User: What shape does this take?
Amino acid sequence: MTGPPSSFVSDEGLHRAKRSLGQNFLVDPNLQRKIVAALGAGPDDEVVEIGPGRGALTRHLVGTVRRLVLVELDDQLAASWADEFQGRDDVVVIHGDVLEAPFMDALERPEEALVIGNIPYNITSPILFRLLERPRPREIVLMVQQEVAERIAAKVGTKAYGALSVGVRSVATARRLFGVGRGAFRPVPGVDSAVIRITPTRPEPVLEADEPHLRNLVRAAFQWRRKQLRKILRDHTDLRVPAEALDRVAEEAGIVLSDRPESLSPEDFIRLASALQDE
Ligand code: SAM
Assistant: This one.
């Protein structure tokens, strides 16, 4: 492929960027290549791209991997891609919402797949949590808002550390790779961005049955992030741990009840969720 399909060839052409779909297109070819290189996909890999848009990343991937699955919500862009790749069995175009479409079903080995995307910023957290549902892919490289990259990678105990940091890092390792200034996009967004790599941990660090409880606990804890764990565990409506069980749970999990949620590492949260399950 040499360029994007002609029907969306320029800002002035048929396709206009839709703010509602977070359409800020990456126009710097060096950055496009750098992001695709960060994924490190080879000819045997199955790759999912979220929101191919006008093909900023797509054009560097197509034909280089075993299967490329494109998930695009925009009617016009999805139709253009479907048209462009009609008859190719190494490209699958899914016209749908990444939060709902069963795109992992298009893969032979979803747990070995790679995921890439310059994702719409208004739904970054839901996309992250969707991608970290089982079966989790082998690796994920995403462009996100700089501020979100900082929250994901934040050190325990800092202001940026919260539900997103724990949600991602309880099941994966996360690394900020490099920053991308707003000038690399059209239209130019109001924020800077960063590329992150998320690598799901193997073997799975959390039992499947414990995962909903862990999510519940993390959400409740950071809703009340200024309160001590004792109060959160005892009084939060989603938890309601009986007072007599608190010391037992704390001992089993190796946590201190007078601490606040932001001082617990992702591993502490995993142990705490499991201790709560044992009660
Ligand atoms: N990959 C292109 C690039 O780097 O220039 C486009 C990136 S643009 C920030 C986000 C893309 O995601 C757009 O193409 C948009 O239409 C698409 N999109 C927005 N919401 C989506 C959703 N819920 N599911 C799938 N794609 C979505």
Notes: The chain has ten helices and nine strands. The first helix runs from residue 29 to 39. The pocket of S-adenosylmethionine is lined by residues 21-26, 50-54, 56-57, 71-74, 77, 97-99, 118, 120, 123 (CB under 6 Å). The radius of gyration is 21 Å.
